[in-house]
Amino acid sequence: MARSRCWLIYTERRCTMTETRRPGSSGASRTVGGDLMNIRLIVLALTIAAIQLFVIPLVLLPRDIDGGWLLVPLALTTTPFWSLIHEAVHGSLLRNRTHNDRIGRVLAVVYGSPFAMLKVGHLLHHRYSRVRERSEIYDPAKTSRQRAAVPFYLTLFGGLYLLEVIALLLAALPERAIRALGRRAEAPDSIGGLVLERVARPVVLGKFRTDAAAIIVVHTAAFLAYGAHGWMLLAALGARALIISLSDNAYHYGTDLESPRAAMNLRLPRILERFALNFTLHDVHHRHPGLRWYELRSRFDAEGGRYHLGWFSAVARQLRGPIELT
Fold this sequence. Notes:
This protein has 326 residues and is mostly helical. Helix content is 59%, strand content 6%. The protein starts with a strand and ends with a strand.
């Protein structure tokens, strides 16, 4: 029989329930098999990152500038790359928690934002989604739709990823300054203040600063490698920003408020769903955050799951803009 284990996550004084199985059971075998599969995906993801950051500028571009076109398909791997980081955030990438977090940090360095902050922010998302975090909602008693539209569209078209990268500047600030920023950012309709308060905790801040330094070193080296073609890498990162920002809230846009588990399953052709590591089955994930990515499809089928919208339709309908609080 399955039993529940509570993992105390440093970002919250609460437990995330994950399903574990007795050693020797078929479930344990599936867990080991899942680790092996994820290790292959990790190696592939880091290989793609190495090609994007260093192989293209140092090997391909000196031979033929058309080698830069390889950045286009590589940019399209943004979603599965983020999905691997997402697995690490939930402690599901590797069963060994220490190895899981270390690999998560390495992947996040390539992604461009410290794992500590991504983990804090995402776990708060699971707790406060549609409660405090509801980026498309505006209160007409406090602001107009026109004024709300400016930050909404800026966030939608790349701003979300840009904020995650700009957060690197926090590494240069003392703990008390970050806490002060957190107090100023605190608002009932935002998790920004909560994120800063948790990042300022010593156990988190140390890792944040280490990873921020690694990000700066890696990406500075990459831009130096590209030299005069640095605009190509900048364009690739811009594509990443657009993909991340457009898709982030598509699973929640217009869903019920005051319901942290409210999310949508979005339809894609099965091969693309698999390519995204089943991230599109977002309703299943929010109701069962302890499941690994390859378990979501079987849970979706077992529950007689349904798709709320197509993925492209869900992304496109965000262009309607902010939604009035009612």
